[in-house]
Amino acid sequence: MELDLWRIAIIVATFAVSFGFLKKAYERLGQQQLKSLPPGDMGWPLIGNTWSFIRAYKSQNPESFINNLQKRYGKTGIYKTHLFGNASIIVCSAELCRKVLTDDNNFQWGYPVSNLILGDHVPFDYISSHKRLHRLLTTALNQHQPPSSHLGTIEKIVINTLEEWSKLKEPILFVPEVNKFVFKLIIDILLGSGTDDTQIASMEEYYRKVYYGLHTTPINIPGFAYHRAVQARKVLANKIRGVLGERRERRCNDPNPNTGIIDFIEKADFEDGRAMNHELLVGLLIGLFIAARETTSRTAIWATIHLHNHPRLLHKAKEEQEEIVKRRPSSQKGLTFTEIKQMKYLSKVIDETLRIGANVFSIFREAKNETYLNGYLIPQGWKVLVWTSAVHMDPEIYPNPNQFLPSRWDDFIPKAGAFLPFSTGSSTCPGADLAKLEITIFLHYFLLNYKLEQLNPGGPVNHFPSPDPADNCPAKIIKIR
């Protein structure tokens, strides 16, 4: 037993010394180039600073990761690091975030595991035509079927869902239930009504596994989250193909088929005349699921929780909704788009929720060319992490950033790059207006007719890859009228 312990001790010591030597050698490598790079620390070979990042984001103080960089290297707004298996540059000032997101000549889409979205069989020239794809989605979501055209669909699903929750005798897990509700909304809007609820539930199950693999190190070995996500993506893609095939069949037999946004996208040609690739269509749908569900769902969840944790703010938001209903003519049934625009305070609640933590920590970009940012070298191929959470929690832009204060948006217009829940530039989310409409309608009916009774208010939060209540927020939905 004693001999085995000595052997283990020798192995551990050898491992530590070897890695220490490798780390020093790694730091000496290319000293001349490193002098031109932003300040920072590349961490250990292979794993870089990933463990430091995970430690911070597993705590209740995720900002400590960026705060430590600022303490060690000053508030330069730009740092070098090594995360998720990639040499990376972090930008975390409003000005530099804006520069990266609006510079399409030097920076491109850079999510490390983007094949989980688009798959392995989409031709590269389709992927590189990001601007054309973005224009196509913008046209589909804002012109072909603008957000206002979905108001009735959203309203119906919201009303039915809230009623179902309130009738349950047992508490619900608020987070996964809102996630499922938003996913159903997405399917109805993208594919049109008619998709079976069982199919939707099955797609949502596999979608969740894909989403959790997006921010993992791409190790495709059984037992790792990335491998589970790759397998789930295969199943999800097959399910999407099946649903699309059923829809095509229905269209052939139905003279007045129920259409969704996907019908416009499927028929669209690229500007150079090429038809839409079927595998790209599947990848686009998976990408739209991610873009449409995560921000919408998380904002609806946290806005509801924040308001119920602040009774005075809840009263103010509820009062605004009641006033809107009072002004409504007796003949009117349901919301109008004009009424949505009158919800000024609720809009501030939504913006404050988006600011304080409804999104993932960073937008991933990649340097297309060797370029310079604020005098620092950005090597070609390096990831560039636009650290939006640091900007949104900057006390110089948002005093008392940890406080939920919708009133901070009174007569306040953030400078360019200081508010990025939907990115900016050519990568601005084309579904931003639709997402806000969905959140607004959900909160409108919740505030008017229901209240949230949390079983464990004020519990811990899981911050990675995005902030969620660690216990999924068990709660009762109580109908009040």
Automatic annotation (TrEMBL):
<dbReference type="GO" id="GO:0020037">
    <property type="term" value="F:heme binding"/>
</dbReference>
<dbReference type="GO" id="GO:0016125">
    <property type="term" value="P:sterol metabolic process"/>
</dbReference>
<dbReference type="GO" id="GO:0005506">
    <property type="term" value="F:iron ion binding"/>
</dbReference>
<dbReference type="GO" id="GO:0051777">
    <property type="term" value="F:ent-kaurenoic acid monooxygenase activity"/>
</dbReference>
<dbReference type="Pfam" id="PF00067">
    <property type="entry name" value="p450"/>
</dbReference>
<feature type="binding site" description="axial binding residue">
    <location>
        <position position="429"/>
    </location>
    <ligand>
        <name>heme</name>
    </ligand>
</feature>
<feature type="transmembrane region" description="Helical">
    <location>
        <begin position="6"/>
        <end position="26"/>
    </location>
</feature>
<dbReference type="InterPro" id="IPR002401">
    <property type="entry name" value="Cyt_P450_E_grp-I"/>
</dbReference>
<keyword id="KW-0472">Membrane</keyword>
<keyword id="KW-0349">Heme</keyword>
<keyword id="KW-0812">Transmembrane</keyword>
<protein>
    <recommendedName>
        <fullName>Beta-amyrin 11-oxidase-like</fullName>
    </recommendedName>
</protein>
<dbReference type="GO" id="GO:0010268">
    <property type="term" value="P:brassinosteroid homeostasis"/>
</dbReference>
<dbReference type="GO" id="GO:0005783">
    <property type="term" value="C:endoplasmic reticulum"/>
</dbReference>
<dbReference type="InterPro" id="IPR036396">
    <property type="entry name" value="Cyt_P450_sf"/>
</dbReference>
<dbReference type="GO" id="GO:0016132">
    <property type="term" value="P:brassinosteroid biosynthetic process"/>
</dbReference>
<keyword id="KW-0479">Metal-binding</keyword>
<keyword id="KW-1133">Transmembrane helix</keyword>
<comment type="similarity">
    <text>Belongs to the cytochrome P450 family.</text>
</comment>
<keyword id="KW-0408">Iron</keyword>
<dbReference type="InterPro" id="IPR001128">
    <property type="entry name" value="Cyt_P450"/>
</dbReference>
